[in-house]
């Protein structure tokens, strides 16, 4: 378990259900730190007050270990708003669920820096780095006719000549 030692400024678009309106300008309300988390755990949930602050056409991200409030949020938000939860206890693969919902946020128009999901690549890359190609599976159950570029030319419009190992194609100028 890690202890949160650094205080980070919260975004102005972060709406908290644990900080009452008259305390919104306090240092505790402006920062994300261990003090905020403790307050969040011991304070009453002010869900109605928080939902009233959400503007129409908003994208709401529920940050919780389970999307417990997702159904209630969807009913409480404006019709044009979207709501996404990043975890669900019902899912057998929460990583897949998380990444799927990150993709949903992208399709809703959020500009995401996906590089932050992956470790920084140090160059030169070591010889033990796993390759991507073994993870790719091709479906060879169907065969498709692939036309050659010569099939798109009118008859007798092309001639070829072999010089050494090279085939030289001569196209008439029209």
UniProtKB/TrEMBL annotation:
- Alphabetized UniProt keyword annotations: Fatty acid biosynthesis, Fatty acid metabolism, Lipid biosynthesis, Lipid metabolism, Multifunctional enzyme, NADP, Oxidoreductase, Phosphopantetheine
Gene Ontology biological process = fatty acid biosynthetic process
Q: Which Pfam families match?
A: Acyl_transf_1
Residues in domain Malonyl-CoA:ACP transacylase (MAT)?
4-109
Task: Tell whether NADP is among the UniProt keywords.
Answer: yes
**SUPFAM superfamilies assigned to the protein according to its UniProt record, in alphabetical order:** FabD/lysophospholipase-like
Q: Which GO terms describe its molecular function?
A: fatty acid synthase activity; oxidoreductase activity
Against InterPro entries, the record matches this protein to: Ac_transferase_dom_sf, Acyl_transferase_dom, Acyl_Trfase/lysoPLipase, PKS_NRPS_Biosynth_Enz
Q: What is this protein called?
A: Fatty acid synthase
Q: What is the lineage of its organism?
A: Eukaryota, Metazoa, Echinodermata, Eleutherozoa, Echinozoa
């Amino acid at each position: 378990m890690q202890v949160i030692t650094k205080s980070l400024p919260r975004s102005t678009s972060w709406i908290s259900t644990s900080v009452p309106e008259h305390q919104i300008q306090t240092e505790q309300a402006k920062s994300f730190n261990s003090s905020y988390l403790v307050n969040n755990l011991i304070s009453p949930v002010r869900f109605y007050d928080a939902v009233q602050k959400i503007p129409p056409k908003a994208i709401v991200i529920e940050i919780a270990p389970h999307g417990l409030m997702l159904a209630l949020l969807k009913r409480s938000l404006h019709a044009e708003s979207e709501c996404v939860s990043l975890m669900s206890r019902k899912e057998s693969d929460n990583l897949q669920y998380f990444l799927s919902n990150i993709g949903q946020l992208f399709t809703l128009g959020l500009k995401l820096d996906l590089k932050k999901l992956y470790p920084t690549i140090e160059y030169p890359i070591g010889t033990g780095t796993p390759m991507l190609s073994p993870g790719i599976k091709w479906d060879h159950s169907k065969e498709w006719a692939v036309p050659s570029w010569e099939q798109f030319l009118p008859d007798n419009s092309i001639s070829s000549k072999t010089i050494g190992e090279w085939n030289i194609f001569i196209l008439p100028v029209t």
